[in-house]
Design goal:
The protein is built from 20 helices and nine strands. By secondary structure, the protein is of the alpha+beta class. Monomer.
């Protein structure tokens, strides 16, 4: 890996295009290096993971609405939309599938200077692959790039510090991945990356306060914009440049300011793309920083005979966990029993309370209104607070994957003065956890979430196809979609018609 120094450049300063971060990203995307076997293995795991969480969210209102929008744009050749037959305009298929994948906040994650869900790259890159009749091998190469670029940007550039939503790293990565997929030239990918960044940079209010369904829509929008950016760039249209380093660019006005400096690592020429191997998926449908907290609560509950005797719980954790999903956010909504599912998902206090009481976590039951409003849960919930611990913050930002941690130390004080204390650094499903996810666990997750949604024969067909991704030829990538019955689709709420 080579570290690239990135800073604002004055308009009069000599700054050749070949030094722009967008150009360096485009060079990585157009490098014909082979995909390592272990990267390919993980790419397939994440295609399975995305399909699993899409199946579980298929009948939720935001997903049904996004699907309805896509179905209003049939196209031949086009791309597939989860749950239905037919083909649709690829940018709209990317949109609908992106919402389905993100709705439950249940797929993969990578956390460093910024945070991300790199699996958000899959819907737009796969949609373009289906539409353009590319092969499975092409798709794997494109996804390896999408993951690489997003994870490398996340390693080097913090967005949330400046209240910019993390999907600002997704637009460029998806555009780069599509560029690899289509074997585009460096100039075209450079322009597409710049356009994608320019059109997907927004504030992070989508993840603050009373969180709405836009939390799921935001990455789908970034993926859709990436598809459109590539289309325009292929037609010869350009982008604002230098998009990151310009005097009126992203760094100068949206991030650290004219004097800020960043170090972004990218593969050197001929170096394989392995970043996906540093990412991790979720066993539980909740914000990633709460994965280890759920597992910690499940283990600590056996030490408590009567939850009503709990006087206080303090979760000592990282800066990010404390300020984003903890009491450091100062969001009263994180203690509101009538808050939206999206808000509860971003309340580590609620999550610890329910996991402590139930000893389990479920993507629907754990968020149900009757569950959130249970009086004993509300009482326990309000005893919980978070505190930033410098050591957990240091481990959160550690560059060594073996030392990186996203957990917490829980201190439970009972009414009689007894203190129960324990900690967990990484979730059980993490590569360094007690039960790391490998292909078997990804398939089990798919089977569990597809139960009652996708019939068993269709599950078998999908799993067979996805595990043969490299062998699939042009025109066969539609097999990486799944369909469901009209009865299943009928479970989705009826919603008003929009413009389409």
């Amino acid at each position: 890996m080579k570290s690239h120094h990135v800073r604002t450049r004055g308009s009069a300063e000599g700054f050749p295009r070949e030094e722009h971060l967008a150009w360096k990203i485009a060079e990585v995307a157009t490098d014909p290096v082979e995909v390592p076997a272990e990267t390919e293995e993980m790419v397939i795991n994440r295609i399975i993971d995305n399909a699993a969480v899409a199946a579980a969210s298929l009948t939720r209102r935001p997903v049904a609405n996004a699907r309805a929008q896509a179905l209003a744009h049939p196209y031949d050749p086009g791309a597939a939309v989860f749950g239905v037959r037919g083909t649709y305009s690829p940018e709209w298929a990317a949109w609908a599938n992106g919402v389905a994948v993100r709705e439950l906040d249940f797929h993969d994650t990578f956390l460093a200077a910024e945070y991300s869900h790199p699996g958000d790259n899959i819907p737009p890159i796969l949609a373009v692959a289906q539409h353009s009749r590319r092969s499975g091998a092409d798709l794997i190469r494109g996804l390896a790039t999408g993951y690489e670029i997003q994870i490398d940007l996340v390693r080097g550039i913090c967005l949330h510090e400046h209240k910019i939503d993390h999907v600002a790293h997704l637009g460029p990565s998806a555009a780069a991945g599509i560029g690899t997929l289509l074997s585009l030239d460096t100039e075209t990918v450079y322009q597409a990356v710049g356009q994608a960044l320019h059109t997907t940079t927004a504030t992070r209010q989508s993840r603050k306060g009373e969180i709405s369904s836009w939390k799921a829509y935001a990455p789908a929008f970034a993926g859709k914009m990436a598809v459109e950016a590539v289309d325009r760039a292929m037609r010869g249209e350009g982008a604002p440049s230098p998009i990151w380093e310009g005097e009126d660019g992203v760094i100068a006005w949206l991030l650290g300011g004219p004097n800020a400096e960043y170090q972004v690592p990218l593969p050197s020429p001929g170096e394989a793309k392995r970043a996906i191997l540093d990412s991790y998926t979720k066993e539980h449908s909740a914000e990633y920083q709460s994965q280890a907290v759920i597992d910690l609560a499940r283990s600590m509950r056996t030490k408590i005979d009567d939850f009503s005797q709990i006087e206080s719980i303090v979760l000592h954790t990282s800066h990010h966990t404390h300020y984003v999903i903890g009491t450091g956010s100062n969001d009263p909504q994180k203690f509101d029993p009538k808050a939206s599912r999206e808000t509860l998902d971003h309340s580590v206090m609620y999550i610890f309370a329910v996991a402590l009481q139930d000893g389990t976590w479920h993507h629907e039951h754990s968020y149900a209104p009757e569950r959130a409003q249970r009086p004993d849960t509300v009482e326990l919930w309000h005893t919980i607070s978070t505190a930033e611990d410098p050591e957990w913050t240091r481990r959160y930002h550690a560059s060594d994957p073996s030392k990186k941690a996203f957990g917490a130390r829980a201190v439970i004080t009972l009414a009689n003065g007894e203190v129960i204390e324990d900690e967990l650094a990484v979730a059980d499903a993490h590569p360094l956890g007690a039960r790391p996810f490998v292909r078997e666990q990804y398939i089990n997750k798919f089977r569990m979430l597809a139960e009652g949604v996708i019939d068993s024969k269709e599950q078998d067909r999908f799993l067979d196809a996805v595990q043969r991704t490299r062998e699939l030829c042009g025109g066969e990538l539609g097999q990486l979609n799944f369909t469901v019955s009209e009865d299943v689709l009928g479970r989705a709420p009826k919603t008003p018609k929009g413009l389409f």
